[in-house]
MI domain-containing protein (Coffea canephora), 185 residues
Amino acid sequence: MSMSAIKEFYSAKDENEVALCIKDLNNPSFYPSMISLWVTDSFERKDMERDLLAKLLITLTKHRDGIISQDHLTKGFDSVLMTLEDAVNDAPRAAEFLGRIFAKVVLENVISFNEVGRLIYEGGEEQGRLVEIGLAAEVLGTILEIIASERGDSVLNEIRSSSNLRLENFRPPSSNKTWRLDKFI
């Protein structure tokens, strides 16, 4: 039901219809799984649909009725990060796509940059696996690129300085490869 709701949303662009569908589900314990399904599905979609999804997640979380809580969203993203290594096999740009969604969520103050950083740093099938294989550097680098391009360096610097994230900790240890994150370190 949640997958048909999101597919309908991509064509009709009716956020209220999705909100009604979620209310009809009336199963808050399923919401993190639903978010994870939607985000993972978006890796196989077009940029426009991923942008619509990011906007929808922000709207549903900020909705006056609190349809989706920040906790639901965080747990959903955590689930996506646990399977990101596998997702990259099917959608090689999945880390970049996830970074774009995260950037919009951070810019709209739905989840803090610190919290997103924590999720990424701890993410993977095993805790810290995304750092180890370089996906953390790619996701975080994309977030920073999007923030800089959409809001400028002053907003980027403000977000970075108000966080306690040490960007160099997101690079794989002993890697000589150049990562998307490197231009921000």
Summary: The chain has eleven helices and no strands. The chain has one domain: 2-184. The first helix runs from residue 2 to 12.
